[in-house]
Amino acid sequence: MYSEAKGILFIMKVMTIIGARPQFIKAAVVSRAFHEHCPDVQEIMVHTGQHYDANMSDIFFDELDIPRPDYNLGIGGGTHGQNTGRMIEKLEGLMIDVQPAWVLVYGDTDSTLAGALAAAKLHIPVAHVEAGLRSFNPKMPEEINRVLTDHISDLLFAPTEAGRQNLLNEGIAEEKIKLVGDVMYDASLFYKDKARKPYLPAELDIQGSDFVLCTIHRAENTDDPQRLKNIFQGLGANGEQVILPMHPRTRAKVVDLGINIPANIWVIDPVGYLEMVWLEGNCRCVATDSGGVQKEAYFHRKPCITLRDETEWKELVDIGVNYLAGANASLIRDYLVKLPETCAFTASLYGKGAAASLICKELRNS
Asked: Are strands 285-288 and 242-245 parallel, antiparallel or unpaired?
């Protein structure tokens, strides 16, 4: 911010709170926009340590052009309550020292809620990226986090019209809500040409888009033996090649429960973001219980079978590119067979790839 009267450039501090690898990718898009459009903004990036990820090495930051965090609080491994409480305590002290003008949080993790609560109690304005998403499932920790964060935020950056409407329906003042589009769409455009093929077993013969990409990690599936068995049964019913980068949590449950994985499902080690982009771009369709991967499937114009009973991205279901199968083996099998060759990917649901610059400009001018 520049004062013409005094000829002085005032620096506005924005503290970004993140705690998981997907949030780093989202925040990187906004960080680049700050650098390009707002030279008078100083961003202080704080990693709570919520999700330890061995892939977050120097290579992770260098390849993805992601700024390294200024602080790593090293908090993780506990229960939701333990983590959130410890984060609030450490973030409060850091905010008192740094004195940011804004605290910027992303999504729906415990780090999101902790950052918002710590800031709100210190009367520091909170901005929430991905505001207004709702699964309407109160048993999901993510749903609790996102609802509470929305209601204590001062600026709410909604990725979709549906998200904006959810906020209005909950009585949030219209002037606080900014419909900006989705930062993950920005990211998909930025990283599209950087994608690279992951290591795949030599026996796996991929010809064109002749495989299903699958991810399974949510507790509602991995902690329920019958749901997990049903999902594998549905994926294995038709014999089509399925590539499954297996989350460590899922791998441990499969071993503990003695679940037999069908022969057509190729389990590989977890992949980095650029490898995931390649898999999403080259598969026939996606089967996932991830919220983010549902959107990424749409960005890559791939139909998606969602292995959950609800979704935050209802608009994708409405236009016929996302199919809710839950853990129903028959539905999973049938959708894999009946997915249309072409889907309605022409709709522009998530903006024009300029969400990050809109977010930066709103913060700078607020």
From this structure: unpaired
